Amino acid sequence: MQDNYRLNKLSKRLRSEVGKAIADFNMIEEGDKIMVCLSGGKDSYALLDILRSLQKYAPVNFELLAVNLDQQQPGFPKDVLPNYLESIGVPYRIVNEDTYSIVKRVIDEGKTTCSLCSRLRRGILYRIAQEEKCTKIALGHHRDDMVETLFLNMFFAGKMKSMPPKLVSDNQLHTVIRPLAYCREKDIAKYAKLKEFPIIPCNLCGSQPNLQRAAVKQLLQSWDKQFPGRIETIFRAMQDVSRSHLLDRSLYDFMSISSLNQKEFNPHHQAEATPINLLASKEKATKIIETKVVASKEQESNLNSQNSYEFSEQELDQLANDELFGGQDYDALARQLQEAHQEEDETKITGLSIKQL
After folding, report:
1. Which of 178, 173, 89, 179 is nearest to 133 (CA)?
2. Residues annotated within a binding site for [4Fe-4S] cluster
């Protein structure tokens, strides 16, 4: 009874997270035929199960095709997946390709096989998707996979890069989606245990003790124990990127950022700078100030003899960008204007600070 309650509660949360990810990234559309890549691990089982559940209530119609790639690993239980898929009534296809022998022949013993294995597997799955006329390819990567990949790329590849929730292949023929993008691995593990999925371990790569991903996973798990919520914070950061506050010149046009005042007042910035008409600038600023003083006096009420008028941000922008007052922040500009006119009309001019920008 307790297990049923936990399963129902967990199912609702996972369905909600998957549904939100699908909506946020427009993963599934009307008439899609989705190839669900089923490896026999907890993540792909959970992905297929949740998509089947959402299929019943989704506002759009879509088909599911479960596809398993049998890579001819020694001891692989060939009957487990077909028996399971037939028992739940899901269309499926088992693809037999001996990538195991290729990987073992090319990669030296003791070295990581994941890179080559994943590339071979990806090419085969793309081919099967095309043969089956599938419009989307669904993979079982979850939130923790994405965070781990971010750190793997930073630590070992020098790139700020992770797994995207939606991706178009290099040849533009296939769209890859990751509906579990918002789901935590520990929730999926609990879900798989409660659902009693027939898990098949990966003897080709999962048993390798020197995987960099395993080291990063261990690091993140230790952070999560010591600082609860840290992984959630990192994942939120991946969704809130400030391109102007990083260093990638291909994503942000740093070259076009140039101060108008630097161009005019720095003799080394440009050799033939246009002469500055300071007199005209002064007259322009004076007219703006006088207009404000007159308006302030006309609106004078029962206050003290000292009037108070606050310049709008647009008006201060006009003054700050003028040649006469260029390069000063709003506070400095306000003080300068106040000192210049305090003796004449005792008008107090205030400004907005932009020091924090």
Report:
1. 173
2. 114, 117, 205
